[in-house]
Write a structure and sequence with these properties.
Elements: E1 3-9, H1 17-25, E2 30-35, H2 44-52, E3 58-61, H3 71-83, E4 87-90, E5 95-96, H4 100-133, H5 146-157, H6 169-176, H7 180-186
Parallel strand pairs: 1-2, 1-3, 3-4
Antiparallel strand pairs: 4-5
Helix pairs in contact: 3-4, 5-6, 6-7
């Protein structure tokens, strides 16, 4: 009957130290750590952690959202753990699935976590819509100015005395200090011929 911890942060520059300390304080003998978004299902250390757990073990996490923000995924994990005889403890929320009250609270907290994620998505969309209404465009700036894009097209269309292209895509990319894929993006479909 092992007590195993799982810690997760969203990005590589964040640190799991706070979670790891709390998990060790909760009696965890081993802690698996991931650096990945909670919305991702394919987290290697979470997979390793779940595979490591055996009947009678307890999985301890610091907060519910460390496992994930999708209610469906959280409930699937809890259901899988329950079927395998593995308990789940969430230290900051007092959730312990070894009790009926803990099972109910886990389901409610999962719904709240999914609701929070939905609100974040809605606020992001509303902010983008408001910015568009004010005439602002999001996303990456164009790699080429219109004059440079025209030059790329002219260089690509130019032929030598032998009837072959005077410039390769690699030469155009080097001249404009951009990647080859960017050159292809700026060429019209009818100009793109396999070279």
């Amino acid at each position: 009957m092992a007590v195993i911890g799982y810690a997760r942060v969203s990005t590589g520059d964040q640190d799991t130290a706070l979670q790891v300390d709390a998990l060790k304080l909760a009696g965890c003998e081993r802690v698996f750590e991931d650096h990945a978004s909670g919305t991702r299902v394919d987290r290697p250390q979470l997979t390793a952690c779940l595979d490591y757990l055996r009947q009678g073990d307890t999985l301890v996490v610091w907060k519910l959202d460390r496992l994930g923000r999708s209610l469906q995924h959280l409930l699937a994990i809890a259901d899988d753990l329950g079927q395998r005889g593995v308990s789940l403890v969430i230290t900051t929320m007092g959730v312990d699935t070894r009790t009926p009250g803990g099972q109910l609270l886990y389901s409610v907290l999962g719904a709240v976590a999914q609701y929070e994620r939905t609100l974040i998505v809605e606020r992001t969309r509303a902010g983008l819509d408001a910015a568009r209404a004010r005439g602002k465009r999001g996303g990456r700036k164009p790699a080429l100015k219109p004059r440079q894009a025209q030059l790329a097209r002219q260089m690509y269309a130019e032929t030598g005395p032998d009837g072959r292209r005077a410039h390769t895509v690699a030469e155009i990319a080097a001249e404009l200090k951009i990647g080859r894929s960017t050159v292809y993006r700026y060429l019209t479909v009818d100009q793109v011929i396999t070279t």
